[in-house]
Each structure stands twice: as C-alpha cells, then as structure tokens.
C-alpha cells in the first residue's frame, strides 16, 4: 500500500471532508455547516493523504494573527481538521502530515503554530506544548448569588437574533483581542462560525440566542447561549449553556452574567470555555457550587525558535541563554540568547554557555505566559544551569492575563 501525500485541490474537497467527518465519528452534518467549512478551508494550505482514490488523511491550517504577551499579534499557523482514517491509523500518516506542515510553515515564514487537540496525548511528540488552559463551570444558580459592581444597572440589555448583531459583536471581540494572549484575530468568514445554529448543535436546546450589552448607544458586550429546558417532579430545572461571553468592561460583563442567572425556569448556568482567570469567579458567593474544571486549550509549537521568541515582549528585562532540544525540527537545536524587555526582544544563536536547558515543547508551553518555567523545572522538564536564571526568565515570560484560545481553531 502506497499513501500519497499532496496539497488539497479545491475539486477534491468533498471526498476530503467526507474522510474527515468519518474519522470524527461520521455523524451527518447539515449542509449549512458543511458549506461554511468549505468556504473557510484554504485548499493550498491543506494536505490530503490518498490511498488510490480514497482520502485517508486530512490536515488543514490557517494563517492567523494571535495575541502574544505584551499586546502584539504574532503570525501563527493555526492547525486544524487533522484526521487519519481508522483503517489506516498508526502507520505514520499523521507523522508525515506533521512533517510536511512544519516544513511548510517554516518556508512560509510562520514562526509559530497553534492547535486545539482532540486528545492532549497526540501532539507533544511533534513539539507542541499546552500553552493555554480553559475553564468550564456548571453554576448552581439556585444557590449561588452574584454581586455586581457599580455601574451594572446603567448597562442596557437587548435580545437580538445572533446574525443581526454580528458586526457589533465582532467589533467588541476585535477590541479585546490584544488584551489576552491566545486570542485569535479572526480571518474573514470565521465570525460566521460563532452564529452557526444547525440542528446537530441543539440536541434538545433552544436556537442560539444573543443578548447584547449597551451603554450610551454603543455595544459593550454580548453573550451567545442556548437554553435547555428540563423538568422533574419538583418543577423546572433547566440550564443555560453559554457559548461566548465577551465584554469591554466589568459592569457590562456583570450585567450579562446577571441576565444569565435570572433566566426563568433554569437553575444552572454552564460555561463551556472561559479563561482560567475569568472575572465572574470573583462575583459569586459560593465557588464550590460552580463545579469548576480546567482543561488544556491551545497547544503551541515554536517553528523557528529565534523568530518566535522575538515575536513577543517580556514583562521585565531578561538576558538568558537557552539550550534547546528539538528532535522533530532539528534546525532549532542548540543554544539561543534571548535579550528582551517590555518593548521588544532579540533572539540569536550563541556559543555562550547555556543558562537553561529544555525541550522545544516546553518553550511552547510557557510561550503565551500562562504556565511558569518554575513549574516545568519542578517537574524536571527544565534544568537551571546558571543560578538565578530560572527566576529571571520565569518573571519575564509570565503574562498579566491568563492566555486563552476563545474557540475551536
Ligand atoms: C488539531 C486537530 O485537528 S485535533 C484532531 C485529531 N484527530 C482526531 O482525533 C480524529 C481521530 N483520530 C485520528 O484521526 C488519528 O487516530 C490520529 C490523527 C489522532 C493519529 O493518526 P495516525 O496516523 O494513527 O498517527 P501516527 O501513526 O502518525 O502516530 C504517530 C505516533 O503518535 C501516536 N498516537 C497517534 N494517535 C494517538 C492518540 N490519539 N493518543 C496517543 N498517541 C497517539 C502513535 O501511537 C504513534 O506513536 P509512536 O511513534 O510511538 O509509534
């Protein structure tokens, strides 16, 4: 059996997408969803593995601006739509697609790659490290009280069809992107994913609903959610399943949360994907009744170590030599001197002795400033070779806000 790996041709998209859908379980998809994915697929960046005329492997990517510590946007390849047919698994098809992708990203001058993993065990071997986390919660609104900050009563709320408010909501989202590492500057068309409301997403819930927050005639936030009405012998016990909540200020955020807490016939607000430092946690009376869980989010790969470390800034001045191991992309191997501060950075090859030794995967883990280098050192993943270097680099890499990837890539 010979597997041929090549760039996707637009005319092959249907067979490619059928193969992909099958690998994710084969549940039928509505035409609207399929057409939207077709529209946003970038064929010349997508790979297809063929066994004869059968598509047995898929991998897509997108060129995004992603917020990095310091408030800038770095060019990142967003990796997605990765599958291998069950009949062809564990024969190295994924490995060959990862190889090709990383060589391409390098050739295209994309110093970083980011992905959301279906299973976190898959991508570490290719140099990706879990760089962001996400928080999930099921808040028992029959027991948990919300204390809102001053100004909340001045925020007006209006329920609107999600599609009608799209431009105003996108403006709110765009304004928030630089404030949090990991936020994605969406490509044209991606905003439509946020209002996609197909039957397979509902399963007993309402249509997608949207409430916008307004002050002085301006949209200052929005929440998109579905209501799942359920009942038992004691009465209603429905839940509010939140898809997105974005707000430009604390009062608007609190007003939207208060709205969710007050929806009649419901007693749970479920948040499926929030930043781990999301402010609502400081407004609730009883965090234990919020059933908070944390999962991995965006996995980051430094494609070019030097350019990647220069693409962000550092919280305090730092001058440190890393000795990097990178079995999958050996062009990164060796010693790199990073000199940076809050204004910018240079990162170049050096013959100087190393201060810290680590794998490229661990640089990916700390890149967006959420996980500290000291945590990885405690796990034995980072070795300090010059006393003091670990503390210096840890402070410099850390972000003020927890990094977070707001939606599927
Ligand atoms: C960014 C995204 O799109 S995430 C979505 C990923 N896709 C899916 O989860 C869909 C369902 N699964 C699949 O399509 C496939 O099983 C894949 C893509 C996960 C793996 O594809 P394969 O072609 O089987 O992987 P490949 O043979 O190259 O395996 C390489 C190595 O990774 C390991 N590996 C592959 N998948 C997994 C996994 N799910 N968990 C742990 N290890 C894995 C293999 O064991 C192998 O290890 P080895 O080198 O030590 O032998």
**Tally of individual helices:** 10
CATH class of the largest domain: Alpha Beta
Strand content: 25-35%
CATH topology of the largest domain: Aminopeptidase
Query: Which secondary-structure class do the elements indicate?
Result: alpha+beta
Average of per-residue pLDDT values: 97
- Termini separation: 32 Å
**The named CATH superfamily of the largest domain:** Gcn5-related N-acetyltransferase (GNAT)
Supply the number of structural domains: 3
Largest sheet: 8 strands, mixed
- Residue windows where pLDDT falls under 50 for at least 5 positions: none
Structural shape? globular
Family: Belongs to the acetyltransferase Eis family.
Keywords: Acyltransferase, Transferase
Organism: Streptomyces uncialis
GO biological process, one term: aminoglycoside antibiotic catabolic process
Descriptive notes:
Helices cover 22% and strands 33% of the residues. By secondary structure, the chain is α+β, with helices and mostly antiparallel strands. The protein folds into three domains: 4-110, Gcn5-related N-acetyltransferase (GNAT) (Aminopeptidase), CATH 3.40.630; 135-296, Aminopeptidase, CATH 3.40.630; 304-397, SCP2 sterol-binding domain (Nonspecific Lipid-transfer Protein, Chain A, 2-Layer Sandwich), CATH 3.30.1050. The chain is globular, with a radius of gyration of 23 Å. 41% of the residues are buried. The chain binds acetyl coenzyme *A. Acetyl coenzyme *A is lined by residues 23-24, 79-84, 89-95, 115, 117-119, 121-122, 125.
């Amino acid at each position: 059996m010979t597997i041929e790996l090549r760039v996707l041709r637009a005319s092959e998209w249907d067979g490619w997408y059928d193969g992909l859908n099958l690998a994710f379980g084969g549940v039928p998809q509505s035409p609207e969803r399929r057409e939207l994915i077709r529209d946003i697929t970038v064929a010349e960046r997508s790979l297809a593995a063929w066994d004869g005329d059968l598509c047995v492997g898929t991998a897509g990517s997108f060129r995004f601006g992603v917020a990095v510590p310091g408030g800038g946007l770095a060019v990142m390849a967003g990796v997605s739509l990765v599958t291998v047919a069950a009949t062809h698994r564990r024969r190295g098809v994924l490995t060959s697609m990862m190889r090709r992708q990383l060589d391409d990203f390098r050739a295209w001058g994309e110093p970083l790659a980011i992905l959301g993993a279906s299973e976190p065990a898959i991508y570490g071997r290719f140099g990706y490290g879990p760089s962001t986390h996400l928080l999930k919660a099921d808040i028992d609104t029959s027991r948990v009280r919300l204390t809102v900050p001053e100004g909340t009563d001045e925020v007006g709320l209006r329920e609107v069809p999600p599609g009608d408010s799209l431009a105003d909501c996108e403006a709110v989202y765009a304004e928030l992107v630089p404030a949090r590492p990991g936020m994605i500057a969406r490509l044209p068309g991606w905003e439509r994913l946020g209002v996609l409301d197909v039957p397979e997403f509902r399963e007993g819930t309402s249509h997608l609903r949207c409430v916008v927050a307004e002050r002085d005639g301006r949209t200052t936030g929005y929440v998109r959610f579905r209501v799942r009405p359920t009942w038992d012998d004691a009465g209603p016990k429905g839940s509010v399943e939140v898809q997105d909540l974005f707000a430009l200020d604390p009062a608007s955020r609190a007003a939207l949360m208060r709205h969710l807490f007050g929806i009649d016939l419901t007693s749970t607000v479920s948040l499926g994907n929030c930043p781990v430092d999301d402010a609502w946690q400081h407004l609730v009376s009883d965090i234990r009744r919020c059933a908070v869980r944390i999962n991995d989010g965006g996995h980051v790969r430094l494609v070019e170590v030097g350019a990647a470390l220069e693409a962000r800034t550092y919280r305090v001045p730092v001058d440190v030599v890393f000795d990097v191991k990178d079995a999958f992309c050996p062009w990164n191997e060796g010693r790199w001197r990073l000199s940076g501060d809050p204004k910018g950075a240079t990162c170049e090859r050096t013959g100087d002795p190393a201060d810290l030794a680590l794998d490229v995967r661990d640089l990916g883990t700390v890149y967006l400033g959420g996980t500290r280098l000291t945590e990885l050192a405690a796990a034995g993943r980072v070795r300090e070779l010059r006393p003091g270097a670990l503390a210096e680099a840890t402070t410099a890499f850390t972000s003020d806000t927890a990094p977070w990837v707001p939606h599927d890539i």
